[in-house]
Amino acid sequence: MIAFSESFIDRLRSAERVAVLTGAGTSAESGVPTFRDPGGLWQQFKPEELANMDAFLRNPTLVQGWYAHRREIVEKVMPNPGHLALAELEMWITDRGGSFSLITQNVDNLHQRAGSRNVIELHGNLTRNYCVNCGRDATEEDLAAFSKDGELRCPKCDDLIRPNVVWFGEMLPPEAIENATYASEKSDVFLSIGTSAVVYPAAGLPLIARQSGAFVAEFNIEPSAIASEMSEVILGPVGESLPQLIQTLQG
Ligand code: BJW
């Protein structure tokens, strides 16, 4: 059993505003590969070849194929006990009249499927896709037309279909980053979960919370790039540590 500090549990019990930032490590135990861990997505595919607009335009079939593969993975997997614990934490806080924001860098929809309600998607969602020219949302049938030999094109204007995710060099959805920054600034307690904290502006949110006086706890299997700035670092897989946090809170 993890021994959370008394000050962490006290702050969480009395918190009026809680914000959480999640990253790929939160979905690792569901079977979704992370980006930068050994065996993660970036080990098999170079990000510069896949996650930016130039790369997409240079080789749309490769990038569309990579996302088709990832869509298949996320449709098959299930939320893990870490996702479920966060949905429970939201209920626990809001039932007491507090506010709870779940800011996620993940594009896999697993928080929503686990029952989390106030989810802020910073990097989009790979289940949504649209035409780069006319903006039309792609349907299931459009996506099903993907084959490894051909490009996925809009049935209306014949231009390329891309995933509704944020690539390097692209702006985050303005409302999402605004709401996430506000929730971080106002939070009494902030949890940074399963993220390497190397991609900005997301990685700056725990730091904003800390500078604004929040208690900031990191949950990870190893210290992140910003671990030294945290109030507390809880090491261990989130499928174990987050349910234990709920148990401790309820105890
Ligand atoms: C576990 C676990 C278990 C594993 N339990 N834990 C400031 C400074 C420097 C650079 C910049 C800056 N501001 C902006 C930039 C540029 C750039 C950037 O940050 N570059 C850095 C890499 C240097 N940022 C951008 O371009 C952003 N846009 C932007 O800022 O726009 C304004 C602008 C525009 C133009 C010019 C200038 C400014 C956009 C960033 C978009 C990121 N997109 C991706 C792909 C999304 C689509 C897709 O999914 O394909 O988002 S990249 C990828 O990284 C993905 C993730 O959301 C993101 C973060 O990764 P994450 O989630 O942290 O995963 P990992 O794998 O890195 O870490 C997993 C962690 O889990 C590890 O720590 C494990 O230990 C842990 N773990 N198992 C607990 N069981």
Quick structural gist:
The chain has helices at residues 6-14, 25-28, 41-44, 47-50, 53-58, 60-76, 81-95, 110-114, 140-144, 174-186, 205-211, 238-250, and strands spanning 17-22, 99-104, 119-121, 124-131, 161-165, 189-193, 215-220, 232-235. It has 251 residues and is of the alpha/beta class. Helix 7 runs parallel beside helix 12.
Features:
alpha/beta, 12 helices, about 250 residues, binds ligand BJW, single chain, two-stranded antiparallel ribbon
Distance between the termini: 13 Å
Average predicted confidence as pLDDT: 94
Number of H/I helices: 12
Strand order of the largest sheet: 3-2-1-6-7-8
Largest sheet: 6 strands, parallel
Overall geometry comes to elongated
Summing up helix and strand content along with how strands pair, one would put the structural category as alpha/beta
* SSE order, one letter for each helix or strand: HEHHHHHHEHEEHEHEHEEH
The kinds of small molecule bound in this structure are: ligand BJW
Tally of extended strands?
8
Instruction: State which percent range the strand residues make up.
Output: 15-25%
Over all CA atoms, what is the radius of gyration?
19 Å
Helix content: 40-55%
Low-confidence stretches: none
